[in-house]
Structures are given as C-alpha cells and as structure tokens.
Specification:
Elements: H1 5-16, H2 27-30, E1 36-39, E2 43-51, H3 54-62, H4 72-84, E3 95-103, H5 104-110, E4 117-120, E5 141-143, E6 151-154, H6 157-182, H7 192-195, E7 204-212, H8 213-223, H9 230-246, H10 248-259, H11 266-276, H12 283-286, H13 290-301
Antiparallel strand pairs: 1-2, 2-3, 3-7, 4-7, 5-6
Cofactor: FAD
GO molecular function, one term: thymidylate synthase (FAD) activity
Organism: Pontivivens ytuae
Length: about 300
C-alpha cells in the first residue's frame, strides 16, 4: 500500500488549504498538487510545487511583459517552433518539484539524470520501511537474446513461482537481519549508516526531485520510451499525464517532435532519399552496420 491512512489525511489537509496568489496557476496542475499517483506496488509520484505554464515559455521566448498580446494559436505555433529547432532556454523557465517513492535500483537509474536538484531520504538518520518491490508475474522475464539491456519471454510455471519465492524470502531475510543489527535490546546495536548496506536493491526509498521542463522532457523522452525498463517507465508515464495537464501546448509539441518523431543519421537520410527515388537499398549498399540497418528498417517499415 503506497499511502497509509495517516499520510492520506496529511495530503487531504494540504489539498484543503487555499491561498490567494498573483503567480501563474494552471487548473489542471492544481488538481495534481499533493495528490499521490500510485506506481508499482508501493511507489508513488506527487507534485509538491510548480512554477510557470505555457505562457511562461512564450513570454521568455519573446521577452515580453506580462501575458502578451499574441493569440493562443500563435503561442502554440511558437512553442512548436522552439521544440522543432531544439531551443531549450524558454522551456527552462518552467519548473516542477516532485515527491517520489521508488525502489533503490530504479533510483540508481533515475539519478543518472544529473540536471535536477535531489534530496533523498537518509538511511543514515532514519530506518527504512519494510517495503520491497516484488514484480507482478507478467513482468518476470528472461534475459533478451538480442539486447543485453532488455527482457525476453515471460517466465512461467514453476520457474516463475521459484523466482517470486526467492525474491520475497531474500527481501524478508535481509530486512530481518537489518532490524536485528539495529536492535539495542541486549546489545549496542549497529549504526544505521552501516546496517543499511545489507538491504537489497528492491527496498523503497523516497526523494524530492526538482527539475526544469527542458530537462524533464529529456528524462521523459528516454524513460517513457517503449524500450526503457518497465519499472522506471511506469514512473515516466505517470509524469507524462501530469505534464500534459500542466503545459498542454508544450507537451503536445513534445509528443509530436520527440516521442513520436525519429532522428536519422546522414547515412540514414541518404538511404531514405535513394529509396524515394526508387532505388533498391540493402545493408551492403547502405554503409550501415547490421545494428544500424535493423534500427533504420524498423523506422522505415513502422
């Protein structure tokens, strides 16, 4: 259960407060504030604060006063131009602060995006909860034979049951020993900063993560992609829903040019032009490696 009754009561109290402000607000985003969007078995994503909206992007691009005089249609066109031509600074005018609860091994992937401000729950000062990520049966898969980073066929039958049993038993045993080492009942008890090293990578941690929209889009482009690991992709997908309500014009442009678009190398573009002229092109005549050609064909053939 990601949220306890006490935590939900605290969230309800936060959402029940209202303050007058002159800053830009977005109704769709206000509906997300403080609310916990559940992810995986014990995780969640919460919006703690945000700054800016679609108008802040075009305002920065035009360096205009206030809301400006341009029509919404023109704002959408400008945002699409900025996205199309890889402008970044106007999108950096919007920021979001999130509270995320996630397994440690997901956090280790997430932290590689170094363009954010992060403050993580400290197991040096506090004791981590007895909460572990245990995959759903349909997420238990063998190693892919084509991709060293990917998954293959889903495990079935006795093998799947054995893996789930081992995950649960090992997680429980490690946490039992963690508590045993920390205990001061009849002993001094090991320091928390040392005892934590015995915990598995599927234990849950929490952090506050603050990032601007430009770098958030970069995160989403990589982590909401179908090829991203499932356990981080579901967090990215939850964030996509939030961002679509926050900056709908910018998110629509992002979906079109980044998520739905493709990037070709100079060789790939040359091959595409040759194909459009009616020329038969294969890997040997493309100048591409086998991997490059496979990816190029996947783009062309859909």
């Amino acid at each position: 259960m990601p949220i306890t009754p006490d935590q939900q009561a605290e969230i309800d109290a936060q959402r029940g407060e209202s303050r007058q402000t002159l800053r830009a607000t977005v109704p769709g985003m206000e509906a997300h504030l403080y609310k916990a969007h559940e992810v995986l078995d014990h995780g969640f994503v919460r919006v703690i604060d945000y700054m800016g909206d679609d108008s802040a992007i075009v305002q920065a691009a035009r360096v205009s006063y206030g809301r400006g005089t341009k029509a919404v249609q023109n704002d959408a066109g400008l945002i699409r131009y900025l996205m199309r031509h890889w402008h970044s600074t106007p999108f950096e005018m919007c920021e979001i602060k999130l509270h995320v609860k996630l397994p440690v091994f997901v956090a280790r992937q997430w932290i590689r995006h170094r363009t954010a401000n992060v403050n993580e729950y400290s197991a040096r000062y506090s004791i981590l909860d007895r909460e572990f990520y245990i995959p759903a049966p349909d997420q238990l898969a063998a190693q892919s034979k084509q991709n060293n980073q990917g998954r293959g066929a889903v495990l079935e039958g006795e093998e799947a049951e054995r893996v789930l049993r081992l995950l649960r038993e090992d997680s429980t045993r490690a946490y039992d020993h963690y508590e045993e080492m920390l205990s001061q009942d009849g002993q001094q008890g090991l320091a928390r900063e040392l005892a934590r090293m015995n915990l598995p990578a599927n234990v849950y941690t929490q952090w506050y993560w603050k990032v601007d929209l430009h770098n958030l889009f970069h995160f989403l482009r990589l982590r909401a992609d179908a090829h991203a690991q499932y356990e981080i992709r579901v967090y990215a997908e939850a964030l996509c829903e939030v961002v679509a309500d926050w900056v709908p014009l910018a998110y629509a442009a992002f979906e079109d040019y980044r998520m739905g678009g493709v990037q070709l190398s100079a060789r790939g573009l040359d091959c595409l032009r040759r194909m459009l002229r009616g020329e038969e092109v294969n890997q040997d005549s493309s100048g591409m490696s086998a991997g490059e050609w496979r990816e190029f064909k996947a783009i062309i053939d859909g």
